[in-house]
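Re: weekly structure request thread

Next one in the queue (468 aa):
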Amino acid sequence: MVNIYDRIAALCACLIRANEADELFVHYSCIAEQAKAELRQAIAEQLPMLFEANQTNEVLSYPAVRRLGEQDLNESFYQVLEACLTFYRDQQAYFALMVLLQVLDESLQELLRQQIADGQADSFSTVLNSNREATGIGLLPRTSCMWERKHRLIRHYDRLDGFLDHLLLLEHTILGELIDKHIFLKSDLFPDLARTNALKIAASPLRRDPHYTLECYEKERVSYVRVRYPMAERAADNETVWEKIQAAAREHADIIVFPELLGNPDLTAYLVQRIQALSPEERQRLPSLMFLPSVWDKQMNTVTVLDKHGHVLCRQSKQNPFRLVRGTQGYLEDIRISHVVNIFHHEGIGRIGILICRDFLTTPYMERLMRCFKLTLILVPSCSTGSYDFRQALDLCAHDDCNVVWLNTCAALEKGKEDNFESIGYVRKRIGRREDDSQRLYKMPVCEGAFRGECSHDCLFFETIQGV
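Done, posted below.
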């Protein structure tokens, strides 16, 4: 199986090099339909196994693409495919190679669905091709998204991934030093998704009191800040998180999100114990995914993700430190950068990424992840003194059909900066073109008590993202 993906990765690398020299993708985006049909017919004559013998396109009368199975990928197939690739490469017939790539993308869709199913059985997945380092290309099956336009990347006509429907293309020149880890969520994790065509999200800012301390210090002539969690508050805080999860379950939420920094080192073990003490029927009613409040521990700021069975799916660490200002002095968050990026894949939802606070506001970093993984949902747990910058950044994701959930906490509210707290969170979502434009942005209001330093721990917001 790896042979077909190795060949496709090499083909993609060849086309990207050609594009750098001659704007291939821009020109191909406007190829004449008749010319494309003729190229397809020529490929069908060389690679008849990629096409149905007695089925043609109704408009242009070129052969319909055949869905390949594992039994089709034999030595004879690879010999003919390699000969065809070599012929077109030698001729520098890049339009023909583009057509062939699109045919292969379409013909492999059933095998790619099987790759998704295989990925669900593993804790995480790697790319399909073995020549990633040599080609600078990684390939994965591309999960569908119910709110993503069919031609989501049409405005990116200078990119190869805009011409692919079933393969997810990862380019090393964009990925850089990041280490990608892919989690294909089990198909039964969201049992109602196919029926409802909707994803219900719960978000809790948790509390007004921070229950953590900030320690400022100097190291190598730079001022830094780190976070500590007193033992006295941990048990009560853990119980509050558990209560929010149960409240979200009663409202049939699919996902629950918590803010940055309001966890503690004991939280994950506590929640796993509580979940595993439930009956299987009770677990089924919990939110399918729980993005726990991040914890600052061992010089890392980390969000732990649990599923409703109490399994730790991943731990996503913050990659970009925040800068705390006290008077005229700035203090840098003293975190170690792991460069590991966890991406969740699920049919109907697409690809979910977690960008912790400053990660989302670091625009080049955020756009890299958008470009690399074609994210369809970004979760942004935050602990920030204001909402303005986050609201501005939300729209950067809108043109690529990527919905965003940003959640702050009242624990970050500082005296004198109350006007910065316009909202405690937002859900920025894609809606249908005929829907009311006001539905694009759901605002989570700050309760009045927060401005007086009070908290009843009642805040829990719900918003549903519908298929479009």
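The first helix runs from residue 2 to 22. The mean pLDDT is 93.
Next request, please.
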